[in-house]
Amino acid sequence: MNKVKGLHIKAIFVYLALILLMSQMSFAQNETKGQKKSFFSELFKKKSNKERKYSDAETITLKQEPVMSIDKLFFDYGDVVQGESAVAEFEISNLGGINLSIKDIEISCNCVDINLSSHTIKPNGKAVLKLTYNTNIVGEIKRSVTLVSNDKSNERTTLLLTGNVKVKN
User: Fold this and answer.
1) Which residues contact 14 (CB under 8 A, 6 or more apart)?
2) Which residues have C-beta within 8 Å of that of residue 63, sequence separation ≥ 6?
3) Which CATH architecture is the domain 67-166 placed in?
4) Which residues are bridge partners to 131 per DSSP?
C-alpha cells in the first residue's frame, strides 16, 4: 500500500512540473507576441549597457565621460591542437560622450599576443581587441587580460581566457 502511495505522490509531482513547464512555454510564446511576461522571464532577463535606460542626470553625465562596454568578458578557445591558431576577439564600444582611451593592457603571461585596432575610441565608436594565444604551450589555458581605461566607473576591466592545447600527433 505504501508503494502505491509513493507512486501517486511521484505522479502528482511530475504532473505539477509539467503544468509549470507548459505555463512557462506559454508565457514565452506570449512574450514574443508582446503580451504578458512571466515572472521567471523577467527574473532571468539580462540587460546589456545598450538596453539600460538612463535618467536625465545619468545621461548628462554620460555625455561628459567615456563609458566602456565590452561584448563579452570571457572567451573559451576550447580544445586546440598544438601549433594551430587560437584567436579571441572582443568588441569594445564607447557609449559615453568623450573619447575613451585604453591606457594600458596587462597580461598574465607573455603567451598572449595583443592586437587592439585603436587605443582611442570616439563616442559611439568601436574597436576590436584580438588576443592570440601561443599554442606551442601545451596544457590548460587559464589567462587574464586587464584593460586599463579612462572610464572612471570602470577603470580596470579583466577579460578571462580558457581552453586546452593538446599535443600534436
Assistant:
1) none
2) 96, 97
3) Sandwich (2.60)
4) 88, 114
Distance CA 80, CA 119 (A): 29
pTM of the model: 0.64
* Distance in angstroms (rounded) separating the CA atoms of residues 63 and 69: 15
| pLDDT tens for each residue of 11-49 | 665 555 555 555 554 444 444 444 444 444 443 344 444
DSSP state of 143: E
Q: For the residues of 40-101, what is the DSSP string, one character each?
A: HHHHH----TTTPPPPHHHHHHHHHS--EEES-SEEEEEEEETTS--EEEEEEEE-SSS-EE
Tens digits of residue pLDDT in 50-64: 445 556 555 545 568
Question: What's the rounded Cα separation, in Å, for the pair 113 and 87?
Answer: 9
All cell numbers assigned to 101: 582611451
How many residues make up the chain in this entry? Answer: 169
The ranges assigned to domains in the chain are 2-44, 67-166
3-state secondary structure of 122: coil
